[in-house]
Design brief:
Elements: H1 2-14, H2 33-46, H3 53-64, H4 70-90, H5 150-162, H6 172-181, H7 186-199, H8 204-232, H9 237-242, H10 270-285, E1 293-297, E2 302-306, H11 309-322, H12 328-348
Antiparallel strand pairs: 1-2
Helix pairs in contact: 1-2, 1-4, 1-8, 2-3, 2-4, 6-11, 8-10, 8-12, 10-11, 10-12, 11-12
Length: 356
């Protein structure tokens, strides 16, 4: 997160085209961009507890070797350090120390940890300071549907049928998509963004800006959905189908979801938030769908393609229903949250300077 933002601030200080993140940074037009970006990344990454300092130092050394202008290299390195340390100081109060989720009396509609896990995931993200939005509560979608509502009954019937491990109604492609979006490596996303940057011939500055904005939107979206999950504590499909408070008409002790149920509440869906985020991101950085959308999941060696941003983002969101871990309304609500948060981040951060 901070790595891409530090690299953006450093590159933007050499060729100022956008507002920087945080306080204005004095321009250093004769600094080496390569030295500035590499040093900024090194400072942030080396601050991570347990980081391989020797490997990071070697990577920095290798990155600086091609820079032959000694003066430009020195100025770039100094700039990279300055912007990176400024960002680290601005986030000094961040803490990922465990925060216990809210407690709620056991009842129908209330999330209960499934036997897949021994402890519920921390809600530390909900206590983090967002990078761009001012208040997570501004994105509060309101409570999930009442258990006896037509919407709740519709969603329960759908996920029970489509999300079951042995589902007879989920298509083969939906099964593949469910596994595809719920596995993989972080580096898979980097390759996806790199293809967009290469196809659009983005400059180093514009690529760093895209990645920094992407990180901020993703982070702030997580802050919102973790806070809302903890607030509403809505039960997962597994609770509603095989839990001790499951309605007799829906209860099935043998039912299993396609993938393991995550150790946190259902509403809103984080996968839905991710789908909305991608919709906003691709609308902003791949306008008109100019770059074909292809993503390879290296963990399962599967590559998927989509005709447009909506098809990709909606598939990501729906995969949580097909996987049996979310209700449809939770996915749709998350999608709206993710899209709105991302659009607000893009509208308020790293904006083009007048005349640029």
């Amino acid at each position: 997160m901070l790595t891409n933002l530090a690299m953006f601030n450093a590159l933007n200080a050499i060729t100022p085209r956008y507002t920087s993140y945080g306080p204005a940074i004095e321009a250093v037009p004769d600094a080496s961009p390569d030295a500035a970006a590499a040093t900024a990344a090194w400072v942030v990454l080396s601050s991570v507890p347990g980081a391989d300092q020797a490997a990071l130092a070697k990577a920095l050394e290798d990155s600086l070797k091609p820079v032959t202008d000694v003066a430009a290299k020195a100025k770039g390195s100094a700039l990279g350090k300055r912007v990176a340390y400024a960002l680290l100081v601005s986030r000094v109060e961040d803490s990922f120390a465990r925060v216990e989720p809210a407690k709620r009396d056991a009842a129908a509609g209330v999330y209960d940890l499934t036997t897949d896990h021994k402890v519920e995931s921390s809600v530390a993200f909900a206590r983090m300071r967002p990078f761009a939005i001012t208040d997570a509560n501004a994105y509060d979608p309101g409570p999930p549907p009442a258990l006896d509502s037509a919407l709740a009954k519709r969603d329960l019937a759908e996920v029970k049928a489509l999300g079951a491990r042995n589902s007879a109604t989920r298509t083969a492609d939906q099964s593949v998509a469910a596994v595809f979006w719920n596995s993989g490596e972080d580096s898979d996303g980097l390759l996806f963004f790199q293809r967009i940057a290469d196809a659009r011939t983005l400059s180093s500055l514009d690529y760093a800006r895209m990645m920094a904005l992407s990180d901020m939107a993703d982070f702030d979206g997580r802050v919102v959905y973790v806070a809302m999950k903890d607030k509403y504590r809505y039960w997962r499909p597994a609770n509603a189908i095989r839990g001790k408070f499951a309605d007799a008409g829906a209860k099935d002790d043998a039912w299993e979801p396609l993938i393991a149920t995550p150790p946190n509440p259902d509403y809103p869906s984080g996968g839905g938030v991710g789908g909305g985020y991608f919709m906003a991101l691709l609308t902003a950085f791949n306008p008109g769908g100019a770059v074909p959308l292809t993503w390879k999941n290296t963990a399962i060696s599967v590559t998927r393609t989509w005709p447009n941003a909506e098809a990709m983002s909606q598939e990501l969101a729906a995969s949580r229903v097909w996987a049996g871990v979310h209700f449809r309304n939770s996915v749709d609500t998350g999608y709206r949250i993710g899209k709105r948060v991302a659009e607000d981040v893009f509208a308020s951060q790293l904006k083009p300077l007048p005349g640029k």
